[in-house]
Design goal:
The protein folds into two domains: 45 residues, no CATH class; 141 residues, Nucleoside Triphosphate Pyrophosphohydrolase (Alpha-Beta Complex), CATH 3.90.79.10. 21% of the residues lie in helices and 41% in strands. A four-stranded mixed beta sheet has the order 7-4-10-9, sandwiched between helices. A three-stranded antiparallel beta sheet has the order 1-2-3, with no helix packed on it. The two termini are 34 Å apart.
Length: 192
């Protein structure tokens, strides 16, 4: 379905200027208008590189998660490994790099599970979830100076309760894990 099938106007940008460069994102202030009307407004947009999160699955079917301190919530968060996709990098290549850097794990195969807009209300980037199957520890971690992570191997059947209870609450972890659990449920139903 394309935008021409909707009966609502598409706003046009009249002016745009960068007002902040914050390393992992830039803030733009735009003035936009609905064509042919007096309706206009000022909006703030976050320009950020695309993100990838990885669901590493070990040969025995456990999912590798990482615990790390998050400055936004001031809490330790249990989540899937992930990070920014570098310019020119595919989601699978970024997933391979992030998995190795954050956990020291590599995997036999990487496949895109799904992707979505991070938050189209004010963000320009896309989010991609990648499954890394056959994940095993092969290397030391290579965290950056602001990272310290604790890997946790979680049995697949424990994930739903960890999500329901709020133990796993990072949106970029909950979404791909739910996609993966739905995929596994569908495969199990088809195997019956």
């Amino acid at each position: 379905m394309d935008d021409t099938t909707y009966n609502i106007p598409q706003w046009e940008t009249e002016h745009s200027e960068q007002v902040l460069d914050a390393r992992i994102f830039k803030v733009r202030r735009t003035t936009s208008r609905v064509p042919g009307t007096e309706r206009s407004g000022q909006f703030y947009i976050l320009d950020s590189p695309d993100w990838v999160n990885v669901i590493p699955v070990t040969p025995d079917g456990k999912v590798l998660l990482v615990a790390q301190f998050r400055h936004g919530t001031q809490t330790i968060s249990l989540e899937t490994p992930g990070g920014l996709i570098d310019a020119g990098e595919s989601p699978e290549d970024a997933a391979t790099r992030e998995l190795r850097e954050e956990t020291g794990y590599t995997a036999k195969s990487f496949r895109v599970l799904g992707n979505t807009d991070a938050n189209p209300a004010f963000m320009t980037n896309r989010f991609t979830a990648v499954v890394a199957e056959g994940a095993v520890q092969t290397d030391p971690t290579t965290w950056d100076e602001h990272e310290e992570l604790e890997p946790r191997l979680i049995p697949l059947n424990e994930l739903p309760e960890l999500i329901r209870s709020g133990t796993i609450r990072n949106t970029y972890s909950v979404l791909p894990l739910c996609w993966y659990l739905l995929e596994q449920q569908t495969q199990n139903a088809n195997d019956r």
